[in-house]
């Protein structure tokens, strides 16, 4: 029969339409504006309304999510910041759009380089969020952030980040990427232990 | 078909044409070098006697130190088997090569590209004009001595970044001051664009007097570059008589960023995230093809688990791309956004998986040479299994019931934009466009790469070569992808995901390689030349949708204006890849 194909197709859109109401009635108010509701809507058996009402609701990002990079610092016992970066320059070298600028510290007295950055710039409008700086950093010093809301009116003031704005504490890193953080800390601890074991105990002369 | 055409034997060109052809014996190179004046004869023999019927890729390489330009041709048999490569070499100061368009009409756009970017003149080409850059562009950007206005150094990493890196804003380099060149005699201030007139003159004007008693005239109509039906900034110039298309020319390059020049400044690894930006709907398969090309040069093999994850990602990408293709084809037919949003909904669930494994929904940057950037977590595997085993087959069937028998879809698509198998091969069409024309050619079968020889799947193909068959082929390919995914997820082994240690500076031996995959839109190939340095000497993308556009005009001729929109939708172009 001519028109049967159109009608059976329209039945599918109709079912989608009816489903939105059935699903809302079934789940109730918690379907919108709650973390549980968002999880429900993005699961593999989602039915009904699928969209997330940004900015009232936000999709949680997975741990691996990468936006622009930041620099990690540890807090020493006396409360001082210990920047992990040694200004080795690997991130600046691997960066595909070359948006990282690093100025290495130099000892004023001897002229020798000190392994810490004097300045560190990232032009986040040039950054392509590829994550390779974080991937190849040997000191776990540069990591990818989760904060993607950084629109502003003035790119020169707000989008060229310097060292001060890039630095974030290791606790923040542990919070956004708990699995990676735990794995790296465990690796570090294992390395320290191996080093300690290899070192001959003090006082036992060969 | 003769024995010579079907046998898998690769012809020894240097013994067949001892005076015209010599093997390419440079270290790391394959194929043959043909004398320029005998190119047409050799190409004809390869096509007619030895069955290399599809010209896959035409590109050039600038060997500046030797003062030579080389044109590289990749051909293959649509009956399967490996790719065959031959080259011609011409002096840099007078690069003239006979055009292969009379033999392979599919060379048309590719030869124009080589002319535009490398300045190689193809004698006998019907319409040799610039294609990606404009007429006020000085020089040929892929020549090694050409420098861009923002030129800093020949190769990355730039020295100004470390150890005395002082931030410098890109805006401070004024692009319209003294760092821009124009061709001799070109004044941008007094520019009267005549390029359009030249373009209109190339349209094939035939006065077909349908009603001799009425005086009629053909008119030129521009569709695009800003047009909702062109899938991006793409322009079609159509010559119409009434509503009938007499001839059509695609105009592109509005999104041109000289991807290949950027890539030749980059190191091998730095190119990986740039490949994401080609066909941004299917970034995983771009990663795949590029990783294969570099791995061929390096001679590394990814571990088992990485191979399986690669296949899983590539097939998920195919489903994403086909959902978008089918959804937007319906948009072009006038079914505004309901079908495409149903497709986008499934895509959204799949890109969630990409985000979980790679960290980004579209710009995945997930493949590395010899493996992957990171492992696929058990949660991601679980989520993929849920989708593949339950939701996706159900939703593909629903899509099928929703659209396939729809009378309007059938009336608009059946018998429209027909491409015969002979034409499809001659025009170098690949992917769903070729298969819908009845040529069951799929790189995954014809020359299995990665671990595709382990999976049980069918190659979808059509019989009529019209829009409807292209739609059906895409629907069937989604089902086959689900089949592959089920097998890959079932067999996914544990183990490492990287061969060797991840290195930020990979060592790539000198030589050339061509890595190709069956991308969702066609054969996606990367032609690389390395000279042993950290940066590729030549990096060329065989972009499937760019080359499939060669067949847009032949498919549209004789049709109606409204059909052109649907035909373009059925080719499924992505401008990031067309313009590069």
Automatic annotation (TrEMBL), chain A:
Q: Give the record's GO CC terms.
A: membrane
Q: Does the keyword Protein biosynthesis apply?
A: no
Highest taxon of source: Bacteria
Q: Where is the composition biased (Basic and acidic residues)?
A: 184-194
Q: Where is this region: Disordered?
A: 184-206
Residue spans of biased composition, Low complexity class: 195-206
Query: Which keywords does the record carry?
Result: 4Fe-4S, Cell membrane, Iron, Iron-sulfur, Membrane, Metal-binding, NAD, Quinone, Repeat, Translocase, Ubiquinone
Where is the 4Fe-4S ferredoxin-type domain positioned along the sequence? 73-105, 118-147
InterPro entries cross-referenced by the UniProt entry = 4Fe4S_Fe-S-bd, 4Fe4S_Fe_S_CS, NADH_quinone_OxRdtase_chainI
- The name of this protein is 4Fe-4S ferredoxin-type domain-containing protein
What is the species of this protein?
Levilinea saccharolytica
Give the taxonomic lineage as stored in the record: Bacteria, Bacillati, Chloroflexota, Anaerolineae, Anaerolineales
């Amino acid at each position: 029969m001519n028109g049967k194909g159109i009608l059976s197709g329209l039945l599918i859109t109709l079912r989608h339409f009816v489903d939105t109401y059935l699903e809302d009635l079934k789940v109730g108010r918690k379907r919108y504006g709650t973390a549980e509701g968002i999880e429900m809507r993005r699961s593999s058996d989602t039915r009904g309304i699928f969209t997330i009402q940004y900015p009232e609701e936000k999709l949680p990002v997975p741990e691996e999510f990468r936006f622009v990079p930041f620099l990690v610092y540890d807090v020493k016992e006396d409360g001082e910041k210990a920047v992990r970066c040694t200004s080795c320059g690997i991130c600046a070298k691997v960066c595909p759009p070359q948006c990282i600028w690093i100025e290495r510290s130099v000892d004023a007295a001897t002229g020798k380089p000190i392994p810490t950055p004097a300045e560190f710039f990232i032009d986040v409008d040039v950054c392509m969020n590829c994550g390779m700086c974080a991937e190849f950093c040997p000191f776990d010093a540069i990591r990818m952030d989760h904060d993607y809301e950084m629109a502003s009116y003035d790119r020169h003031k707000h989008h060229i980040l310097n060292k001060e704005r890039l630095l974030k504490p290791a606790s923040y890193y542990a919070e956004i990427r708990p699995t990676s953080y735990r794995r790296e800390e465990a690796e570090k601890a294992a390395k320290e232990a191996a080093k300690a074991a290899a070192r001959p105990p003090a006082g036992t002369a060969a | 078909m003769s024995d010579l055409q079907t046998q898998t034997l690769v012809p020894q060109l240097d013994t067949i044409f001892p005076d015209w052809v010599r093997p390419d014996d440079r270290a790391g190179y394959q194929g043959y070098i043909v004398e320029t004046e005998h190119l047409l004869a050799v190409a004809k023999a390869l096509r007619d006697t030895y069955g290399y019927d599809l010209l896959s890729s035409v590109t050039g390489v600038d060997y500046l130190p030797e003062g030579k330009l080389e044109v590289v041709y990749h051909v293959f048999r649509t009956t399967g088997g490996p790719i065959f490569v031959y080259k011609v070499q011409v002096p840099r100061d007078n690069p003239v090569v006979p055009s292969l368009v009379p033999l392979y009409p599919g060379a048309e756009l590719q030869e124009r590209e080589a002319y535009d970017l490398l300045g190689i003149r193809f004698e006998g080409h019907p319409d040799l004009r610039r294609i990606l850059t404009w007429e006020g562009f000085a020089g040929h950007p892929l020549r090694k001595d050409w420098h861009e206005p923002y030129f800093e150094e020949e190769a990355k990493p730039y020295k100004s970044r470390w150890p005395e890196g002082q931030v410098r804003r890109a805006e401070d380099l004024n692009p319209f001051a003294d760092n821009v060149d124009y061709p001799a005699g070109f004044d941008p201030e007094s520019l009267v664009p005549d390029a359009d007139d030249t373009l209109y003159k190339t349209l094939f004007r035939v006065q077909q007097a349908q009603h001799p008693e009425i005086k009629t005239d053909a008119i030129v109509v521009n569709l695009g570059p800003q047009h909702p039906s062109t899938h991006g900034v793409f322009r079609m110039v159509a010559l119409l008589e009434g509503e009938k298309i007499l001839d059509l020319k695609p105009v592109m390059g509005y999104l041109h960023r000289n991807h290949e020049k950027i890539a030749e400044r980059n190191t091998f690894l730095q190119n990986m995230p740039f490949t994401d930006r080609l066909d941004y709907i299917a970034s995983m398969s771009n990663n795949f093809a590029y990783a294969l090309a570099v791995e061929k040069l390096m001679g590394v093999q990814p571990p088992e688990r990485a191979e399986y994850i690669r296949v899983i990602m590539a097939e998920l990408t195919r489903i994403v791309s086909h959902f978008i293709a089918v959804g937007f084809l319906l948009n072009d037919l006038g079914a505004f956004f309901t079908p495409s949003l149903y497709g986008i909904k499934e895509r959204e669930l799949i890109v969630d998986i990409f985000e979980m494994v790679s960290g980004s929904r579209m710009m995945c940057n997930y493949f590395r040479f010899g493996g992957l950037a990171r492992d696929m977590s058990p949660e991601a595997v679980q989520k993929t299994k849920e989708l593949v085993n339950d939701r996706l087959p159900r939703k593909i069937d629903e899509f099928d019931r929703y659209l396939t028998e729809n009378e309007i879809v059938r009336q608009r698509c059946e018998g429209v934009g027909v491409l015969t198998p002979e034409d499809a091969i001659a025009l170098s069409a690949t992917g769903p466009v070729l298969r819908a024309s009845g040529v069951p050619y799929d790189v995954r079968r014809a020359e299995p790469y990665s671990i595709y020889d382990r999976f049980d799947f069918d190659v979808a193909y059509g019989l009529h070569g019209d829009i409807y068959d292209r739609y059906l082929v895409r629907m069937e390919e989604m089902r086959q992808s689900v089949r592959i995914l089920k097998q890959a997820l079932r067999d996914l082994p544990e183990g490492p995901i990287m061969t060797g240690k991840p290195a930020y500076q990979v060592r790539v031996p000198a030589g050339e390689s061509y890595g190709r995959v069956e991308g969702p839109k066609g054969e996606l190939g990367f032609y690389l030349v390395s000279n042993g340095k950290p940066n590729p000497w030549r990096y060329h993308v065989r972009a499937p949708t760019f080359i499939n556009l060669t067949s847009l005009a032949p498919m549209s001729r004789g049709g109606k204006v409204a059909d052109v929109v649907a035909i373009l939708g059925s080719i499924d172009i992505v401008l990031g890849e067309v313009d590069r």
